[in-house]
Amino acid sequence: MLNLRRCQILRTPLPVNALRWATTTSESTHSSKPAGDISSVFPSLSGAASQPLPPRFADLKRRLIQGHEEEVRQSWNRLLADLREETEIIKAVGSKIIPELAFRDLDNVEKRTAFRDELHKRGVAIIRGVVSEQEALSWKELAKRYIQTNPSTKGFPAEKPAVYELYWSPSQILARAHPNLLKTQGFLMSHWHSSNKSARISTSHPVTYADRLRIRQPGDAGFALGPHVDGGSCERWEEDGYGRGGVYSEIFRGNWEVYDPWEGSCRLSIASDLYNGPGGCSMFRMFQGWLSMSTTSPGEGTLKVNPLLAKATAYFLLRPFFQPTRSPSDVGAAFLGANNWRFEDEPTSVLQGAVPSNCQELNDVLHPHLGLENTMVHVPQVRPGDYVAWHCDTIHAVDKTHAGKSDSSVMYIPACPLTEVNAEYLKRQRETFLEGTPSPDFPSGVGEDEHLGHLTPDFVMQNINIDAQRAMGLAKYDQDCKDLPATERLTLETANHILGFA
């Protein structure tokens, strides 16, 4: 077991290799984000009032579907019909709709194939037993001691934290570096593909993204995070956001059935954080995910997901173009019928649930056809060591109240491919690790710079394997590896150059 006091960060001298890394960064590596916590990007958590969007968004909406208005109208009607059918399926199946696979079966072709088909449709999955229960529980105890040893640690809610502003605790570093987790991330990302065969992207080289951890106690109702999608909000409609790669172009042309949420190359050029929000993600996360450190059942402060992926995405992207003819009180059940919905008389700047610098939030009033009360399903019971992952466009939420009898604890560990943009982020993130400050995407502050138990770079380099070192930007990628595809070789060369290993 690690001794927290013996693992204090070393400020001088830094290791030789750390000094060399530092010289590769010309600008300050401290986060330019405002101070805050996880509530900073969720008006529903912070209570902040949402301001109307400027008129330019009305012009944007007009441009997005110009010349395709009739196709979009017809596609909307088809989508509403499909959503009705899918809602009934989800109501009947519930949490069983989420595909699962045991870590030991990752190489079982038959089981992998069945898993793949359901993952592509649902966008969420559980990989069982990625690490042993004993190891996951030991990381939780280590995290609890780290927090107790450092009472200055910030969290949300402030009075009784459930989500901690921690990025570099020993538990998090060791979990991210675990070879089983790296293998799981690579396996999940292999379900993406690229139509552009020259795209510089490697799903077989997971990149570390330092995120928070959660230890939610029974009875907690403060961390009541409702349905939302991370990775920006307004950016999904904006030409300088997701429009750079034409990610959703088929949806805005009236061809939502053609839209492929698993196409990776079109996302390499997007900007998902145009407003520098304190928690807005600028990295390409193919999957968001967490590693469980507790046995947690539905209703016990756990995750809820909407397993509709492509159709739900198409819906919330098209919703701003349509309005009801009559209110629910006037037409009752017929309110959701296609005949009650038409194009806006004149485009408005409204993008339901989208606010600059925040995540995309959804609810039954703004997005009635999603039937969120019925289509947001709990993940099945998880045990320590299970890994839960969901596609970066998946609508997800958290139990409003933790009704269990023990803590609901996870470490947020997404799955990110190696790309040029991700390597640039990794370079900045590496410096925040050396400084003990929050990861670049997250709220600024002193962070863990003064925390006892913050692992030294020397300790990390001596106790994690070479693949984990590369994932953290601490070691050179093997670009000369035999049988490496040409495009992947170029991806590794580019990353090595960015990280200062060229």
TrEMBL record:
Under InterPro entries, the record lists: Gig2-like, IPNS-like_sf
Q: Give the range the annotation lists for the signal sequence.
A: none
Q: Which Pfam families match?
A: Gig2-like
Name the UniProt record assigns to this protein: DUF1479-domain-containing protein
What is the protein's species of origin?
Lepraria neglecta
